[in-house]
Amino acid sequence: MEINLLKKQLELIIKAPVHLVSMELQEWQDLTQFRNPEDSVIARSVVLEGRSLWLCGTHHHKVQVLEANTSDLADTEVKLIELLVASIDGRRSSPAVTGSKGDEYHSQQLGAWIQEQLELENYQAGIPESLKWRTKIHGTMLPFLLGWENHSAMDISFVKLNKLLRSYFGGDIALLPLKEEWYVLVGEQLLTDLRDENEEGLDTERDMLSALSQGMYELITNEWVGGGFHLSVGDPIDPEEALVSTALLLRETLALGRIFHVTEQIHLPWELRLERLIYSIPGAQRQRFLEDTGNPVRVLDDEEIMMTLDTFFQLDCNVSETAKRLYIHRNTLLYRLDKFKQETGLDVRSFHDAVIVKLGMLLYKVTNGE
């Protein structure tokens, strides 16, 4: 039964207007637990002062609720309406969710809880025993965070994305919707298998994480043509201790990547340590440094020199490799660097001057990015 048709039928039955309202899932949970503490988090209705609300649909962090003035209705009539509303999706007032629908529901529950802890800045919170997926999130896991650029991550189907990622990682995963991202947790067994095939070591492990991220990015880009999303990955974690704090770290990493590396879509926390430090500097201190630096910063308004210096620093100040990456002759690159030296007095081929210019570029980016 369509919601709009049901709405009209209810209006005829109770002889009063019925309104279709959208609210956050967490708001509905708080409301039902406060008014009806004996109900579970999937309570189908709540009676307030002179009015009643019935849950008629959920979608990630949002719920649809029918609201009406029911001060003249008996409790039994309110309950009968609740059963009628529940019938629109074939569920009872206390449904047992199973299969893919159950996975999506429990995913939404855990995602909503993580989002709430982030908003409360409760970063060390442990997973409540009341959340069913607590048993699914255990042992060492690999954390990924997907953030879409041009539209909400909620526009992507849970079922479709979950199936795609399960096929990529070759096993079960936990796909959790946050407010504007998808939080993905993968069992460490995948990384263990890769370790067995390669040399051990932190650098090698992080190279593997980077490669996994690249493959994941290409897979999703091929599925949703045009891409338009950013991806971050962290070191393996114990979700019992670091589920929320890691979500925060990866969210900050995506934000830093968007500011400092606008042409890249994959952002790794261990590659953005300097950017994180620069971002933490108060605005007044950043501005003072830029003013003291003077000419070098003004020269950065030139897109060509900015791109040249970015590439030069990415390739460890290697002139030959930078020229190859930029598809220019080595002498052309040297001419650009000499011209920059003439205009600023700083030679980026020397360590001291390179540090000054690199800091100036980062401060310039964060100042303009804000």
Briefly summarize what is shown.
This protein has about 375 residues and is an alpha+beta fold. Helices cover about 55% and strands about 15% of the residues. It comes from Paenibacillus lentus.
Mean of residue pLDDT values? 82
Helix content range:
40-55%
Structure classification = alpha+beta
Low-confidence stretches: 35-41, 90-98
Total count of domains: 3
Radius of gyration: 27 Å
Distance between the ends: 48 Å
CATH C-level category of the largest domain: Alpha Beta
Description:
- The chain has three domains: 3-90, no CATH class; 102-275, Alpha-Beta Plaits, CATH 3.30.70; 281-369, PucR C-terminal helix-turn-helix domain (Arc Repressor Mutant, subunit A, Orthogonal Bundle), CATH 1.10.10.2840.
- Helix 4 packs across helix 8 (239-260), helix 10 packs across helix 15 (351-369) and helix 13 packs across helix 14.
- The longest helix has 22 residues, at 202-223.
- A hairpin with a 3-residue loop joins strand 2 and strand 3.
- The protein is elongated, with a radius of gyration of 27 Å.
- It has helices at 3-14, 25-35, 75-86, 99-119, 158-169, 189-197, 202-223, 239-260, 273-280, 283-293, 295-299, 303-314, 319-326, 330-344, 351-369, and strands at residues 18-24, 45-47, 51-59, 62-69, 141-148, 173-177, 181-187, 229-233, 266-267.
- The strands form two sheets. The protein has a five-stranded mixed β-sheet, with helices on both faces.
- Residues 35-41 and 90-98 have low confidence and may be disordered.
- It is an alpha+beta fold.
- InterPro entries: CdaR-like_regulators (IPR051448), Homeodomain-like_sf (IPR009057), PucR_C-HTH_dom (IPR025736), PucR_C-HTH_sf (IPR042070).
- This is Transcriptional regulator.
- It comes from Paenibacillus lentus.
- It holds the Pfam family HTH_30.
- Residues 307-361 form the PucR C-terminal helix-turn-helix domain.
